[in-house]
């Protein structure tokens, strides 16, 4: 049986009851509602022979004094026997980490065709004029990019586009569009990558890519 109202949920289990207490509300509000349910709204299921009670506090950080307050409220019902009062360690916020996996796809994208991928993409093949390749993450093309490529399509302006032969009709990273390839100022089109710097798209040789992530190591999974 399960009864819930705002911050306190009481569930019947095989060996008694579990009190699930909200870990985000104010502590005094929680105690007040627990008291109210024990005295008023849940008298029928909280009377009779001895009932074993397990209290779950979620990820709330509690002191010994707070545990004693819980015991004091519940012990007012003489037939409730507290077996445990548990809380889970609060998970630490995880800092942004470099991408550590990549999907490999082989093929050729012809005029009128579009390939879309969620995450980082290693594409083994050519993207012909009129073809389009898009990804929410980075795009690495081991072949000729002569069509359109759009990396970070969901707004990730940290994404890059790299190609063995870089002569696209258009490059996009997040919402930023590249200049015409004729304006890049690079005579050769081999092993280059595009990235965003201060809101503008830049082109450089692939061997300079390490400057974007100088302190990270990544592992590729296929």
TrEMBL record:
Q: Where is the Septum site-determining protein MinC N-terminal domain?
A: 8-85
Organism domain of life: Bacteria
- Alphabetical keyword list: Cell cycle, Cell division, Septation
Q: Which InterPro entries match?
A: CAP/MinC_C, MinC, MinC_C_sf, MinC_N_1, Septum_form_inhib_MinC_C
Q: One Pfam family from the UniProt entry?
A: MinC_N_1
Septum formation inhibitor MinC C-terminal domain: from which residue to which, for each copy? 105-203
Entry similarity comment? Belongs to the MinC family.
The UniProt function text for this chain reads: Cell division inhibitor that blocks the formation of polar Z ring septums. Rapidly oscillates between the poles of the cell to destabilize FtsZ filaments that have formed before they mature into polar Z rings. Prevents FtsZ polymerization.
Q: How does it assemble?
A: Interacts with MinD and FtsZ.
Supply the name of the protein.
Probable septum site-determining protein MinC
């Amino acid at each position: 049986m399960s009864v819930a109202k705002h911050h306190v949920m009481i569930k019947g289990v095989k060996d008694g009851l579990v009190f699930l207490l909200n870990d985000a509300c104010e502590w005094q509000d929680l105690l007040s509602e627990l008291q109210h349910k024990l005295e008023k709204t849940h008298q029928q299921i909280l009377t009779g022979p001895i009932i074993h009670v397990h209290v779950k506090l979620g990820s709330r950080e509690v002191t010994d004094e707070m545990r004693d307050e819980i015991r004091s409220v519940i012990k007012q019902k003489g037939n409730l026997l507290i077996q445990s009062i548990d809380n889970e360690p609060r998970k630490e916020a995880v800092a942004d980490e470099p991408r550590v996996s990549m999907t490999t796809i082989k093929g050729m994208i012809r005029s009128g065709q579009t390939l879309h991928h969620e995450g980082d993409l290693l594409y083994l093949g050519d993207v012909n004029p009129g073809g389009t390749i898009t990804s929410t993450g980075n795009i690495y093309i081991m072949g000729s990019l002569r069509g359109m490529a759009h990396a970070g399509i969901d707004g990730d302006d940290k994404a890059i586009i790299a190609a063995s032969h870089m002569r696209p009709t258009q490059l996009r990273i997040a919402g930023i569009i590249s200049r015409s390839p004729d304006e890049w100022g690079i005579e050769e089109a081999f092993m280059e990558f595009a990235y965003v710097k201060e809101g503008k798209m830049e082109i450089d040789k692939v061997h300079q890519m390490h400057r974007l992530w100088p302190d990270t190591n990544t592992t590729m999974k296929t």
